């Protein structure tokens, strides 16, 4: 049927009950709140079956803590500041789907926070929430000069404007996401911060270290 949503298959390697699931709701029950859960979505049943019978490391890319993969050396860009800085990133299954975000220290790759996955979100919203979460965390712990890196110019603009321009509409599935958006906007309107928010130059430096590695 024209315009129908494409079927996804969700592989859970490590979680409550490993297996292949045909809906995000079923997958989410196995991974949400499970430390170290490993899962990924696929576009076909054949791909999912092949992945499930393989080592998840072949599908979930992991970078060593604090490492930067440099692809192009451009003197005009320089290198990222690896000390006194954090990176945030989001992951979303498709243009609209399960969304999660997290923040890590650049120097050692240690995770500061993680949220989700939450149903029916977008990557840009996750990027926005990640930045604000980082700003709130840093202010709470008095890291007033710590840099926040993001690879999303859209999210940077939304933070500057203190509002989102998204076509996503609120519904019962994504109520949690919209609650987080309201909290983030309220925080921006009620707080000031000195932390620089800088663009992570992916073409020069590789994927941002907070990346979930599921591309």
UniProtKB/TrEMBL annotation:
Reactions catalysed, as given in the entry: Endonucleolytic cleavage to 5'-phosphomonoester
Co-factor requirement: Mg(2+); Mn(2+)
Gene3D superfamilies referenced in this protein's UniProt entry, alphabetically: Ribonuclease H-like superfamily/Ribonuclease H (3.30.420.10), Ribonuclease H1, N-terminal domain (3.40.970.10)
Keywords: Cytoplasm, Endonuclease, Hydrolase, Magnesium, Manganese, Metal-binding, Nuclease
Superkingdom as given in the UniProt entry: Bacteria
Gene Ontology BP terms: DNA replication, removal of RNA primer
E.C. designation(s): 3.1.26.4
Subcellular location: Cytoplasm
Residues annotated as binding Mg(2+) 1: 89, 211
Ranges where the RNase H type-1 domain occurs: 80-215
Gene Ontology CC annotation, any one: cytoplasm
Molecular function (Gene Ontology), one example: metal ion binding
Family: Belongs to the RNase H family.
PANTHER family in alphabetical order: RIBONUCLEASE H1
Protein role: Endonuclease that specifically degrades the RNA of RNA-DNA hybrids.
Official protein name in the record: Ribonuclease H
């Amino acid at each position: 049927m024209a315009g129908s949503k494409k079927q996804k298959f969700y592989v859970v390697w490590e979680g409550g009950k490993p297996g292949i699931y045909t809906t995000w709701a079923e997958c989410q029950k196995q991974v949400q709140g499970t430390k170290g859960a490993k899962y990924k979505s696929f576009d076909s049943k054949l791909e999912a079956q092949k992945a499930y019978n393989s080592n998840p490391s072949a599908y979930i890319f992991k970078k060593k803590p604090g490492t930067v993969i440099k692809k192009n050396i451009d003197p005009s860009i320089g290198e990222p500041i690896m000390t006194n800085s954090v990176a945030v990133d989001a992951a979303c299954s498709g243009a609209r789907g399960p969304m999660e975000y997290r923040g890590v220290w650049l120097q050692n790759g240690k995770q500061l926070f993680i949220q989700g996955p939450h149903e029916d979100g977008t990557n840009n919203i996750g990027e926005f929430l990640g930045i604000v979460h980082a700003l709130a965390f840093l202010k709470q712990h008095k890291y007033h000069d710590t840099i926040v890196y993001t690879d999303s110019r859209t999210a940077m603009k939304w933070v500057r404007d203190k509002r989102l321009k998204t076509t996503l509409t609120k519904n019962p599935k994504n109520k949690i996401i919209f609650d987080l958006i309201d909290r983030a906007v309220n925080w921006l309107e009620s707080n000031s911060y000195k932390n620089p928010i800088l663009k992570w130059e992916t073409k020069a430096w590789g994927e941002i270290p907070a990346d979930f590695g599921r591309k």
